[in-house]
TrEMBL record:
GO terms for molecular function: glycosyltransferase activity. The keyword Magnesium does not apply. The keyword Translocase does not apply. Keywords: Membrane, Transferase, Transmembrane, Transmembrane helix. It comes from the Bacteria. The chain crosses the membrane at residues 95-115. Residues 21-158 form the Glycosyltransferase subfamily 4-like N-terminal domain. Coiled coil: none annotated. It holds the Pfam family Glyco_transf_4. This is Glycosyltransferase involved in cell wall biosynthesis.
Amino acid sequence: MSPHYSSGRIRVLTFLHSFAPGGVERVALRLVRHWRAMGVDAPLFLGREDGAMRDEFADVAYEMPRQPRRHQGGWETLWMILTLPAAIRRLRPDVLFVAGSTYTIVAVAMTLLLGRRCPPIVVKVSNDLARRDLNPLGRFFWRAWLRIQARCARSWVVMDEAMLPELPPVMAQRGHVVHDPAICAMQLLPERAQRPAGPRRFVAIGRLAPQKHFALMLRAFARAVQPGETLTIFGDGAERPMLEALAASLGIADRVRFAGHVADAPAHLHDYDVLLMSSRYEGVPAVVIEALAAGLAVVSTDCGAGLRSLLSQGRFGMIVPQNEALLAEAIRTAPCATPDRPALLASLRRFTIERSAQDYLALFVAAAEAHAARRPMPVEQEVPA
């Protein structure tokens, strides 16, 4: 007879490389904190303990392997593959939670290294799977990699119904929707406080990395900026020196502020009017959810089905192709608030952590019970008379 699981009797292991800032990591840490508050046994395994979000989540306890002599920042995925199996054997989780698409290679490795001793895996798909930004050859290899990944997990979780058709057939058979828990219910305020009069204040949040395509944003902003308008960019990354030089060459260095990483950047959104996003691809970006909840208007490039669904195909924000002139025109004409706030709030209730944390736990319980049911029953030895 297989064991009976419940949300209070299940151990869910989440693993992350570090406290380095990222949407996947922030949501995962918030989920771990919330599950623990619910009484769930939710251990957290980190490859290393550095990162800009460490102080923000100082209350979240974690386990960490003995550190190598050489800092593993440049080979963190290999380090996780080498150290996670021992943690799984020691902690004996009922479920392994893969917090985002960047961690699926670790999940594949765990199934190969641990075999039947690997707990059932639940993967959150955090990025657009269609990857139309790739050339045909790149998409061919991308689809091949998806087919390899597909067999490693019990459940594949997408963050919006619009992403389900993008799942390869093998994933789709085990596909589920759990909306991205980017906000809490208290953030869903009926109205935004009256904005002060004056030029519009634009803001962007994200890693300064190729995926986010901040260079496109800066070029479009330079074409559209009106007197007195500013753009503040929260986030850091390897592209920062190049982007700062680009802003200077475009003549907008005095209009663009690179604020770097700040703890809980979304908490600063109320100081701005319009969120800009220029990503090449995304899943359901948490920062857009947070901006909409804060009452900002949104201008974004078309970076995936999840983004289009989140903005209700343009009803709750402006969506433009990856084109500098079109993005500039959208910036030029962007309003200072999202229209039809009652309908927007009704849509955003899907993305509260109170709701999504429960939905994840239901999936974890189902995965653990199905896994236990497939285990061979121990053979009872006959006791001699």
